[in-house]
Amino acid sequence: MDTTTLKLLFANYENLRKQEHLTRQQLESYQAQEFKHLREYAYANSPFYREFHKGLFDAPLQDLPVLTKSMLMENFDDLVTDRAIHLQDVKEFAASKQGDELYLNRYVVHATSGSTGNPGLFLMDSDEWITALASSFRGFEEAGVKMNPNQPVKMVQITSTNPTHMSSGGATSMGNMGIPIRQLTASETIPTMVEKLNAWQPELLLGYASIIRILAEEQLAGRLRIAPCTIISGSEVLTPETRRQAVQAWGNVLFNMYGTTDCGAIGAECQQHHGMHLQEDLAIIEVVDKNNRPVPEGEYGEKLLVTVLWKRAQPLIRYELDDSLRLSPSLCSCGRPFRLIEEIQGRVHEILSFPSATGGNVKVHPIVFHNIMDTLPVNGWQVVQEADGLHLFLGGLHGTFDEDGLLTAVKQALIKQGAAIPNIEVQKVPSIPQAASGKTPLVKSNLSHS
Q1: Maximum Cα–Cα distance for the chain, whole Å?
Q2: How far apart are the C-alpha atoms of 217 and 264, rounded to whole Å?
Q3: I need a surface site. Which of 38, 130, 242, 272 has the fewest CB within 10 A?
Q4: Is the pLDDT confidence value at 351 over 80?
Q5: How far is the C-alpha of 76 from the C-alpha of 86, rounded, in Å?
């Protein structure tokens, strides 16, 4: 057991908890101070940022240029702040990584899966990794899990076990510190997963929304027999039907968390269940339209711009994430000073484009399909756009199903959006295929122009 790192983790966690008692004014002052320190460090140590922000060193945040993942990867060696770091070396390290070994004996390296066709490599030094883990612990605490080194919570995580994936790295690090956690891969067969869960009897279950939905079905059928105090969903859109089934199976113990490999933990749901608190002492979040202009609270943005206040090895200032969400116009009754994410619709690359009935093209957001598909008697579903039309995959179908009714509902929804009706095909499958990361995207396009 790595007791020294464990002590550092819990000390960091307690410091983050103290930030929850700031006033909104104190929080904004803290953000301004930390942003100033971040810029000073980036300008002193990153050749990229000295050039990228040239002439803007004293400009307000909203006047700074936007950093995309493509730009980050194209300028990797100049963007990082340690001149010993080189992209080719990091790629080779990530390709051969087996466990929790550190690049240059100092840096944790994680990779995005490249589901948008643009994979990325992200690193943190050891201290930054502790901050990332502590922010996850705070998310657990918001969900009612009391993190105590003397009374460890028995956990299970069902995501990817690839060592380059951030979720797997977090579970491995916690296990090395003596925290009782089991990792299961999301690609395991359901009977095997059920058997292991029944044997382990976790108090805290973490997993993809698609896995939680399947496990709720298993619990209701009597094959899975666990009684977790808390279930946390992440990495996929948590739909209302998945939440309803989880509540039916285990009670009101399901909480949503939102984070990315690029930026770490961003939001977490508290016990009021009014949305997810932005971790605004760790990042400045801007919800913007396609032209990077802020959208009013209560309206969906096209994307996010995230400035991570604690990252120094690979600074991220106004870094673009293609997630569409809306913020609540009011704060939570729990008293935390952080703004609330009311809802996440999905990612921009999940928006499907169809010929318009009146000419040109029309974009259809994934929420249109969620509202229809999420009511079906299935263990999982997926909408895939191909050159020959729209394919509706239904996994683990059970109960009464009206295929004609489904086709009519989808066609009517597309007509309402102004789209010309494509060929639509329903396909019944044993299960929905997973991506390499183990995630199951609900809506995606395989058209080359998307």
Answers
A1: 65
A2: 30
A3: 272
A4: no
A5: 8
Q: What is the pLDDT of residue 198?
A: 98
**Residues making up the chain, counted from first to last:** 450
Specify the pairing of strand 230-233 against strand 204-207.
Answer: parallel
Residue 310, C-beta contacts closer than 8 angstroms, at least 6 positions apart:
34, 128, 131, 282
> Tell me: the pLDDT tens digits for 409-442?
999 999 988 899 999 999 999 888 766 555 667 8
- Could you give the CA distance from residue 243 to residue 282 in angstroms, rounded to a whole number? 28
**CA angle centred on 308, ends 305 and 314, rounded to 5°:** 110
Cβ proximity of 415 and 357 under 8 Å: yes
DSSP summary character for residue 394: E
Would you tell me how many other CB atoms lie within 10 Å of the CB of residue 446?
10
Nearest to 382 by CA among 369, 398, 397, 367: 369
Which domains, and CATH codes, for the chain?
A: 3-344 (3.40.50.12780), 351-445 (3.30.300)
The single residue listed with the structure tokens 């496990």 is: 215
Using alpha carbons only, give the angle 21, 22, 28 rounded to the nearest 5 degrees. Answer: 150
Give the integer Cα–Cα distance in Å for 22 and 281. Answer: 10
Tell me which amino acid residue 433 is: P
Closest CA to 293 of 284, 283, 306, 302: 302
pLDDT digits (tens, 9 = 90+) for 33-44: 999 999 999 999
Closest by Cα among 24, 121, 33 to 310: 33
Cβ–Cβ under 8 Å, residues 95 and 103: no
